[in-house]
Amino acid sequence: KSANPQWREQFDFHYFSDRKDMLDIEVWRKDNKKHEELLGTCHVDITALPTKQTNCLELPLEKHPGSLLMLIAVAPCTGVSISDLCVCPLGDPSERQQISQRYCIKNSFRDIKDVGFLQVKVLKAVDLMAADFSGKSDPFCVLELGNDMLQTHTVYKNLNPEWNKVFTFPIKDIHDVLEVTVFDEDGDKPPDFLGKVAIPLLSV
After folding, report:
1. Cβ partners under 8 Å of residue 167, min gap 6
2. Is the dihedral of CA 76, 82, 88, 89 positive or negative?
3. Which residues of 144-183 are buried (b: 16+ CB within 10 A; e: fewer)?
4. Sequence-distant (≥ 6) Cβ neighbours of residue 66 within 8 angstroms
């Protein structure tokens, strides 16, 4: 019930500088649970923004009245990575010792925002549901922690895919929940849901 909403939400995206990506933003209005209406769109060319600073942008909605006020910062990505099993972080004993020292009890209050980091090895899935007419699926796995999201590659025509990837996330809140979702890639259509598991960090 507002023409001037304030959301004050922060989202983190992993942007790689060798790609020329646009940030696409859509504003929607909900009448009820079933009816939604698009109120406008806008686009931001990430490559045109100055790095290592917060950019305050007022973005007019295309073909619709109104505008969005956003703060966008492009900064080097720290703590987030995707790697193969053979070269994963913490695989080197000396690196593991450095991490243990960094997060030992006596250093707990050195940087309050640096809670720690989570390393997840996504090995494989077994006996997935068949989403295609061929009796197979094209599964990929999405990992979400807070507003961080990473995903594996797609393994085509397989109900027992092996990804063998290692994902590393910085932890911002120890009460966050790691959500791991498996989807079936479906070409230009939205992916089909194949299953999900939620793991509270405090249970690890």
Report:
1. 81, 82, 119, 120, 121, 122, 143, 150
2. positive
3. bbbebbbbbebbeeebebebebbbbbbbbeeebebebbbb
4. 3, 27, 39, 40, 60
Cβ within 8 Å of residue 57, ≥6 positions away? 44, 69, 70, 71, 72
Burial 121-140 (b: 16+ CB within 10 A, else e): ebeebeebeebeeeeebbbb
In this structure, of 27-36, 60-69, 102-111, 166-175, the range with the lowest mean pLDDT score is 102-111
CATH class in words for 81-203: mainly beta
Give the start-to-end residue ranges of the domains of the chain.
22-74, 81-203
Q: Work out the pLDDT band at 79, boundaries 50, 70, 90.
A: low
